[in-house]
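Support case: iron/sulfur cluster complex. Customer-provided input:
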Amino acid sequence: MVNKRVVRSSCRMCHGVCQVLVHLDGDRVVKVTGDPDSPTSRGYLCPKGAASPELLYHPDRVTHPLRRTGKRGENSWERVSWEEALDEMAERLGSIKRESGPEYFAMMQGTGRPYTCFTTRFAYAFGTPNFTGVAHLCYFPRWLASLYTTGQLPVCDLYGFGGQYPACVVIWGCNITHTCASDGMCGGTVDRALRKADRVIVVDPRRIGPAETADHWLQLRPGTDGALALAMINTIIGEDLVDHDFVEEYTAGYDSLAEHVRPFTPEWAETVTRVGADDIRAAARTYATTKPACIQWGNALDMSACNFQTARSLLILRAITGNIDRPGSDVFWVPPDGVRQRSLYMNLEVPGLQFLSDEKRGRALDGGKYPLCPIVHPPAFWRSIVSGEPYRLRAMWIVGSNPLLTMTHSLEVEKALRLLEFTVVSDFFLTPTAQLADLVLPAATWLEQDDVVNLHKIWCVLARKKVAQVGEARDDREVIIEMAGRLGLREAFPWKSFREYLDWVLEGAGVSFDDFCEKGIITGEMRYEKYRTQGFNTASGKLEIHSSALEDMGVSPLPVYREPPLSPVSAPDAALEYPLILTTGAKIKWFFHSEGRQMRSLRRASPDPLVEINPVTAKSLGISDGDRVWIETPEARVIMRAKLFDGIAQDVVSAQHAWWYPEKEPPSHGWRESSVNLLFGDAAYDPDTGSESLRSSLCRVYPVDGHSA
Ligand code: SF4
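Agent response - structure generated as follows:
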């Protein structure tokens, strides 16, 4: 009994936002529960968070460094010590740098990870411009659009710090109340805000939970968000629902916007989006007149070939209605005083994720083709490894990513990984990607980490306390610090340990890491309408509706709409053969991208990859609920189970992503059976960011054991 204790910490089974209580019996974690006293999550806990102990003690975890012994991809490994692994790594990376140059090494990581500033810092300190990942289609398009428009990312003010909650909440391309968290926001918090709001608008091709009771559910054709947003701007300007005081005083470019959006009428948008013109007008009126209003936007906007421009439109919607930095609207958080938050824009002395200089871009494997792609463009990256043009990359360190499952052109990714001379993967499990590595380093789970958690740089930092240790798993940041020491990169990584780094992060706040863990949270002191005294953090100091900076880069200075590259409109011939619109990338409550498929509790809840299909369409194709079906595109076909759902249009199907089967034989674990990313080829990318159009493509669907459609 005396061995039982509870430690306050914060979960990181997804992007991390929930404060939790970790229940221990001796040294063993027995349970994780929500922390009812948490201001960020108020006791919320999702199934992924509850499954944390299952991840920690999973028998298949990699718990010691492994070195490949057989041929690449043969699943033949030997256990080595950390010393041996790091020595070998330092020796190989050092000699590649000396022989060929630093650009022959690349670093990549998966979705927003707590170590982003470490991986980028390591890459740039090493001297390579070749850093890649998923930033071109996740979060960064919205963040970059914000930098050019408002100077900072606006976030929904759902906590009532200013004495007001949003009267109108717009949920746009974000199923956060199902998926549990997104961009540093907790699904439970959004749920509460929706219940408090007078009016709710949902923009989604699928009838997600909040759409059931929303005042307006705009069921648009996938990928046409940009057209809808422009028509809403057109309505608000046309009906003079504009906040003129705000616009005149604090924005630049309104007049040119008014001229620019004249053709984008709701009638025009109806032909593009399939949402009725009157419904568009009604939603625009609701948003513009129910104050304060906020827009909870999501990743669906990023995964399109019009992501940056659409994000600009949504920022302008906020601007012309004055829903910026006012209580209950979309606001700019004031971060905690004195805490060195780990991001470039909070902490300029730290070289973190940043735009590559022209000189560096020139040496990058994609040649810097997309002006607003914050990483080396992944399809170009993998292709260059296969082709050897402009040069053949030699080594790679993949931290917390499973690109075979999570990137398009997956077969090319596989080819590339087989061609590399030396690959290191840091992960929890021997994933299909890790199976192609030379060295696999065991990563620590959040229960094995200390951290100052910064929630996508918003209004607080949360404490995470190490409570367990399984095998020799180590925090990736500690490994990066060690590797930096071995490679002579101490200037960039002056800390002797990760703990020393955490003390440095908290130095200005006047609190040690241990004291911080006692407190659990440090919050900033929120102030609203900061633009009145300090303007906006843009070149002109105004909110830039028209952006000259973008114009100078060859990017449209006012938002435009682009049709998805493979749609019934842009590719009518292809649509004859592939008559269904394929949308994918919607998050699944039980899994964090390709993670979690090993965990019994999660797989019980979600055992198979699913494709949602309208019952009318299913019937016409001879498909019943639960049938195994092929989803086929010109690129490939994969198998999923049909889930009949009348909340989706008859010519749209929604397929889950990042599926593999840890229970199937290694090394492949059946990854080619159901990974939706196999279905995407070389349709056009967003010319600004290079994003693939994952939310809108074309496919056909037919039963595995029956006739072909
Ligand atoms: S939403 Fe994310 S942070 Fe919160 S409990 Fe679930 S996995 Fe953990």
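Residues 82-100 form the longest helix (19 residues).

Case will auto-close in a few days if no follow-up is received.
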